[in-house]
Design a protein that fits this description.
The chain is built from 7 helices and 10 strands. By secondary structure, it is α+β, with helices and mostly antiparallel strands. A 5-stranded antiparallel sheet has the order 1-2-3-5-4, covered by helices on one side. It has a 3-stranded antiparallel sheet with strand order 6-8-9. It has a two-stranded antiparallel sheet with strand order 7-10. The protein is globular. The termini are close together. The N terminus is likely disordered.
């Protein structure tokens, strides 16, 4: 297991906080108060898709600048994941290794449910998973200095989140994007979690199975287990293997089987 729970609790009791003191507070998003995205943005093309919805390239009508928009559809109210992602993007995207947040919009539709738009910096280089998959198709691999460069950017982004008491909880190649000028950006904070002063560890199991730390998986299987921000470091280590070999360990297994295998 990555770290000892008792050690973490002792550190808190002794006044040695493991994380910074960023005043991170929830503030409920009021959909009716958000601007219609059609006033400012035109969709150019689809550049990604996930369980939440689609990601589009968009152009600003006023200055011609381009961005990426994550469209959550349909949305009639704001759930915990949307609230978490908005708060983190709004408060903590002022770091070179975290994707920049450009605004939030709402396109109402009383019949099908509205669309919530999270407008983000456009990372034209795609994800590092796409990079390594493309190289492997051509019989090539990422060179070690490039892997080190990507991991360094990921670590700096995680350090920024952890210093502000945020665990990403879904670090993997698909959530590390590249810009055309060599930037490395962490994205996708929908399952991220705040660590409060009174609770510097978590006991809910989230993330993508192959990249999950053993103690995170144990929270699903044993309720007395917990974890802290070091679970992100484990996930980044698995991402290093993904970058070197093309897949995380146990990728040939069914995800449910992997969940039982990883803690052992």
């Amino acid at each position: 297991m990555a770290g000892n729970v008792n050690g973490r609790v002792d550190a808190v009791n002794n006044g040695r906080s493991l994380y910074g003191l960023y005043p991170y507070k929830s503030s409920m998003i009021r959909l009716e108060g958000l601007q219609n995205p059609s006033d400012d943005w035109d969709i150019v093309e689809t550049i990604g898709e996930g369980t939440y919805g689609k990601v589009y390239k968009v152009t600003n009508k006023k200055d011609g600048s381009q961005a990426a928009v994550k469209v959550l559809d349909p949305v009639n109210d704001v759930d915990e994941e949307i609230e978490a992602e908005y708060n983190i993007l709004h408060s903590l995207s002022n770091h070179p290794n975290v994707v920049k947040f450009l605004g939030i919009f709402y396109k109402a539709d009383e019949f099908t449910g509205g669309q919530l738009w999270l407008v983000l910096e456009l990372c034209n280089g795609g994800s590092v998973t796409e990079l390594i998959k493309g190289l492997l198709k051509r019989g090539k691999r990422l060179e070690e200095p490039v892997i080190a460069y990507i991991l360094c950017g990921g670590l700096l982004g995680l350090q920024h989140l952890h210093n502000n008491r945020i665990i990403h909880r879904d670090v993997k190649g698909n959530n590390i994007l590249l810009t055309t000028d060599g930037g490395v950006k962490l994205v996708d904070f929908g399952v991220s979690a705040q660590l409060s002063t009174a609770r510097l560890h978590r006991n809910t199991s989230v993330g993508t199975p192959f990249w999950m730390a053993p103690e995170v998986i144990a929270c699903e299987q044993q309720l007395d287990y917990s974890y802290d921000a070091r679970c992100d470091v484990w996930s980044l280590g698995i991402t290093a293997i993904e970058l070197a070999e093309g897949d995380p360990p146990l990728a040939e297994m069914h995800p449910v089987k992997a969940l039982f295998k990883i803690p052992r």
